[in-house]
Specification:
Layout: E1 2-6, H1 12-15, E2 22-24, E3 33-36, E4 52-55, H2 65-70, E5 74-76, H3 83-98, H4 101-110, H5 117-124, E6 137-141, H6 145-156, E7 160-164, H7 170-175, E8 181-182, H8 186-192, E9 195-198, H9 212-217, E10 222-226, H10 235-244, E11 247-252, E12 265-267, H11 276-296, E13 317-324, H12 329-340, E14 344-352, E15 355-362, H13 368-375, E16 380-385
Parallel strand pairs: 1-2, 1-3, 3-4, 4-5, 6-7, 6-9, 7-8, 9-10, 10-11, 11-12
Antiparallel strand pairs: 13-15, 13-16, 14-15
Helix pairs in contact: 3-6
Length: 387
Amino acid sequence: MFKYHCLNPIADIGLDKFTGNYEKTEDVNEADGILVRSAAMHDMELPEKLLAVARAGAGVNNIPLDKCAEKGIVVFNTPGANANGVKELVIAGMLLACRDIVGGINWVSDNKDNENIAKAAEKEKKNFAGTEVQDKRLGIIGLGAIGVKVANVAKHMGMEVYGFDPYVSVDAAWNLSRDVKHALNVEEIYESCDIITIHVPLLDSTKGMVDKAAIDKMKDGVILLNFSRDSLVKEADVLEGIRSGKIRKYVTDFPNPMTAGQEGCIVIPHLGASTEESEDNCAKMAVKEMMNYLENGNINNSVNYPNCDMGICSQAGRIAIFHRNIANMITKFTACFGDEGINITDMMNKSKGEVAYTMIDLESPATAEMISKLQAISGVFRVRVVK
């Protein structure tokens, strides 16, 4: 019996996927797995028995990834599950920026008591005129699940689309319209595009990537969209760009005191994935990932450990070893089994940065003494008996 705890409300359509071998607990210290959305976990004391954290969404900046890795706790996210919801809001944000729809709506609201509002509107509407997106050049930085969907929709809207992503996946490449032009560097996007939208993860290498130097390269009157993370953009530089006329509009899904209510900023209250469909998809995917890991030791869509999948174990035993990605570890593991006369029937080792994950199937169950020997090897974080 596995126990799980929800730090945030998780859609029932996802929780209903748990079988009878799972029980929800209100005590986080009893949990084998934690399901989370936006709850902050950095100051949380992680339970000793905790095996997995599944984030029902893509961003994981609320989870202490390194701390979890060193404790042998696998952190999952759900890439692509909310991509359609975010894509739709990006397109909406682009239209809001090109056409002064918000200004027009506010004018109507302010003049609601005017009996001649229809006639007045005909005189005032010129103040809210905008531009169409057709034939405009859209630059997309990051061609993951969301970026690809935005690119394909924009092509159908008659836009000229450029995409930049040096690490684009095979799946993304297959799903991307062949009419999307490949930019060789991000500067090409900055220098040539009328509208720029950012879809990259927040990393040390991407934090503050859109700064004054980047903005200075952009076309005058550029529209900038940020539906990824606010820290990707140095918003003080963006506000200066708006004041100087370099930036026509800045659309962001991350409200904060710097941009809220500022001239030239359209600030949305983090609605990107806030649709019933997105929340349902994320919940179902998070539960599926957690169950596959807890029952079989398989890792798919982890952000702190490598993907590693050996299917359902048909042997007498399976163990999982979390360890540093250093030389000679596999030799040490296999030597332990050889000394005990335990035969290995299958094995898989994968690494991700400084950490690695090894799954081993055995002809006979591992003994407590064997687990202790493995745990004692320098560089091993955790040894888990899956079966």
